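Internal tracking record. Fields below are filled automatically when a chain is submitted to the structure queue. Please do not edit lines marked as system-generated. If the sequence contains nonstandard residues, flag them in the REMARKS field before resubmitting.
Queue: standard
Priority: normal
Entity type: single polypeptide chain
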Amino acid sequence: NSLVQAQEAVVQALEGQNQFTTPLSPVDINKLSVYRNGVKIGFAVVDENTIELIDNVVCFAGDEIRIVQIF
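SYSTEM-GENERATED OUTPUT FOLLOWS
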């Protein structure tokens, strides 16, 4: 019997922001999902607890970024 748990962080982005701190470290890219205003988006790992949005995604002030990390 294995229980899956998730930690979630919701951040109101700043204008031009594209890097965010994850709820837990270290980051396992296979156990992390990132959403911008409810839409799943791509990201890359910068360091053990920072991710960066990819494909030149840059946030507008007030965008909601939700990071869900399974552990």
